Amino acid sequence: MDALEPGALRIACCNHKGGVGKTTCAVNLAAGLCRAGWRVVVVDADPQAHLTASLGLGDPGDGGLTAVLEGDVPVSRCLIEAEGLRVLPSAARLATVETELSRREAPDTLLATAMADLSDSDVVLFDCPPHLGPLTRQVLGAATRVIVPMTPDYLSMQSLAWLMGTLSELASAETSGGPSVLGIVLNRFSARKRLHREVRRVVAGHFPDLPFETPIRENVSLAEAPSHGQDIFRYAPTSAGARDFAAVCRELARRTGEPARTAKRGAK
């Protein structure tokens, strides 16, 4: 694939199921790509605001994504700088916005229109809520690609099959084709556990070429980092979690045709 124009790569970390590592992926992929020289914006589209908290940011109140969706404020005016990242934060107030979007049957293109304000970024990463509600639909309307985080268990496989069907239906319904699946990231993986190995094998069999080569291993540092308001590269740079996410970032660059462009900027 040819390298994309600035601002054209928008990746949603999406899964209907909760607890599969969507926020962990969004935070640490954003941090890893930033360290590699990418200009990164990360969007917290979940009213739980776990991504915002994981980066050590406070409650933006009526600002952040709430202001973009409710007040028609340009995205560029709502971003917060955090360790080289530009963050569009979230807050509990966003749940009210989601209800209002549903009540007035707002088009799923509001966020996509607002993201046109970000032509000076290389990639935008979105952290989605764990359901296909109005906020997730706004993200999928703005995204060009989807990364599906999952855990190596039976219920996650069921959710994965459902999500893939949903994304296919959405793509068929959109005149633009909708976002395509960039890959599947397997979280909290332990090669010692037979179930984990079996889930990895089954997922690869059903969805060839989609699983990232490197699974994210079980690593206590990944669980601890958010409580310190840090990504894994700042909190535990030599940990298995940091090494795994660095490998996934390199593969993400290959899958999107980006290595040459980041190299020109002098990747770190």
Mean pLDDT: 90
How can the largest sheet be summarized?
Answer: 7 strands, mixed
| Total of DSSP H or I helical runs spanning 4+ residues | 12
Described by the principal axes of the CA atoms, the overall outline is: globular
Structural class: alpha/beta
N- to C-terminal distance? 23 Å
Poorly predicted regions are: 1-6, 260-268
Query: How much β-strand is present in the residues?
Result: 5-15%
Write the layout of secondary structure elements.
Layout: E1 9-13, H1 22-35, E2 40-44, H2 50-54, H3 64-71, E3 80-82, E4 85-88, H4 93-103, H5 110-115, E5 123-127, H6 134-142, E6 145-150, H7 154-173, E7 180-186, H8 194-206, H9 220-224, H10 232-235, H11 240-255, H12 259-264
Parallel strand pairs: 1-5, 1-6, 2-4, 2-5, 6-7
Antiparallel strand pairs: 3-4
Helix pairs in contact: 1-11
